[in-house]
What we know:
By secondary structure, the protein is α+β, with helices and mostly antiparallel strands. The protein has helices spanning 25-40, 64-77, and strands at 2-9, 45-51, 54-59, 82-90. The model has no long low-confidence stretch (mean pLDDT 95).
Amino acid sequence: xxxxxxxxxxxxxxxxxxxxxxxxxxxxxxxxxxxxxxxxxxxxxxxxxxxxxxxxxxxxxxxxxxxxxxxxxxxxxxxxxxxxxxxxxxxxx
Length: 93
């Protein structure tokens, strides 16, 4: 299966006592790259390629809900730096 994850940086409206400051651009980029590395370490993920604020995945995981379940822990670690906006299945070309 192919998927597209849309990612965004934490903004002012996301801030709370656990995440009191938005990340600067350098922090965001570092955590985005860490996110890709963590996703690539999942056994069922064949590839994870960045395109702007998106990540294209090729995976053995059969559905978006199952993919999101597998990614939940990774996004929890990055909660103060970036957020998952959307996850959609892509057509196989």
